[in-house]
Amino acid sequence: MANRRLAPAAEQPQDFAFTPENADWARGQIAKYPEGRQASAVIPLLWKAQEQNGGWLPQKAIEAVADELGMPHIRVLEVATFYTMFALEPVGRFWIQVCGTVPCDCCGAKELKASLHERLGPSGKVTADGNFSWLEVECLGACCNAPMVQINQDYYEDLTPESLNKLMDDLAAGRPVKVGSQIGRVSSEPKDAVNTLTDESLFDGSRVGAWRKRFEQTEGADQGGESVKKDEAASTEARVKDETKPARPSAGRANESNAVDAPAERASAGETPVKPEDEAQARDAKAAPTLDPAVVEDKVLRTEPPHHPATVGAGDDVPEGENPEARADAAGTRPKGLDTPRDDRPDDLTKIKDIGPINQRRLNDLGVWHYDQVAAWSPPEVAWVSAYLAFPGRIDRENWVGQASDLAGSRG
């Protein structure tokens, strides 16, 4: 891979600006991302700038994209110089990008590069007739059909030096060319002999329903074996009963304990079955206070259920099952909405505390797209939205109107 650098100053245009059509397209791309995330549109805008400029990116185009997105020039330059799909120097009418990564290299990319070098000269140089230039690039994602090249927007796969030269002859002469595999391969099917799925019954439908025949053939044998299974179960149950072990007084003792604590074991060992300290513990247990059942019952009956304050809000008189708009109409006045956001650039309503992505979508469905719309809500409109979103009192508590007013003011 060659170093990535901008074209010499002598080849750079003095300025760059999107055409009106492309400028509208760029604004549409930017609008796809939320407020503060416009930089995410940098790659599509660079691609459109390259397309408009005849297939390569001059410095002024990179700077124009940076200004459009409010990004430092160096950040956009970093993107443009990283991705090999962006040409930083003038290219021919047919720009040939040769994949040089491992799969293509193993399958013949070296021969393709040698052929291009012989016919067109060094990479990055435009031929005298302006038709061709070529460059080795990183993986183009068609590894199964290696080796391959990308010429302008199209992929040409399963190439040899001979087929690549014929392809260039046809392009230069204006003859139609075949896109994709040059050996008739469909998608990424095997190139040579097929080694898998050779049994047609796997995919010709003949096996449909075959499971039923197998089931019917084995069902009788399964039923015949039921009596054997029952006999085996009875035998196992009887054996478990016979092998039941007698209970041991020390069965509840921890495994690591070797102490003999049970009175019966003490007696068999010649010790006093009941020790004085055991009697003292028993007396203490009897002396422990007990709860009178009547007192307990009285306390339970007198215990009040936890208090849950009733939610008082608009729409309480709406029958259960009523739709949200009907509930809201009974509460207040619906705020006026917009069919679409102004300039196709909606505000990020999630910047208002307590509004998440779901409620932002619901507000958008009501035609609420901008901070100034929320800031202008009157009390009846707040009541309507509160009932619609099932947020009684929440809009006032979180001060949506005040937050929206601050956000609208910060935008100037």
TrEMBL record:
Its cofactor is [2Fe-2S] cluster. Residues 217-353 are annotated as: Disordered. GO terms for molecular function: 2 iron, 2 sulfur cluster binding; active transmembrane transporter activity; inorganic cation transmembrane transporter activity; metal ion binding; monoatomic cation transmembrane transporter activity; NADH dehydrogenase (quinone) (non-electrogenic) activity. Keywords: 2Fe-2S, Iron, Iron-sulfur, Metal-binding, NAD, Oxidoreductase, Translocase. InterPro entries: NuoE-like, NuoE_dom, NuoE_N, Thioredoxin-like_sf. It is an enzyme of class 1 (oxidoreductase). Gene3D superfamilies: Glutaredoxin, NADH-quinone oxidoreductase subunit E. Its EC number is 1.6.5.9. Residues 227-246, 274-286, 296-307, 336-353 have a biased composition (Basic and acidic residues). It catalyses: a quinone + NADH + 5 H(+)(in) = a quinol + NAD(+) + 4 H(+)(out). One of its GO terms (cellular component) is organelle membrane. GO terms for biological process: inorganic cation transmembrane transport. PANTHER family: NADH DEHYDROGENASE [UBIQUINONE] FLAVOPROTEIN 2, MITOCHONDRIAL (PTHR10371:SF3), NADH DEHYDROGENASE UBIQUINONE FLAVOPROTEIN 2, MITOCHONDRIAL (PTHR10371). Belongs to the complex I 24 kDa subunit family. NCBIfam families: nuoE_fam (TIGR01958), PRK07539.1-4 (NF005724). This is NADH-quinone oxidoreductase subunit NuoE. The lineage of its organism: Bacteria, Pseudomonadati, Pseudomonadota, Alphaproteobacteria, Hyphomicrobiales.
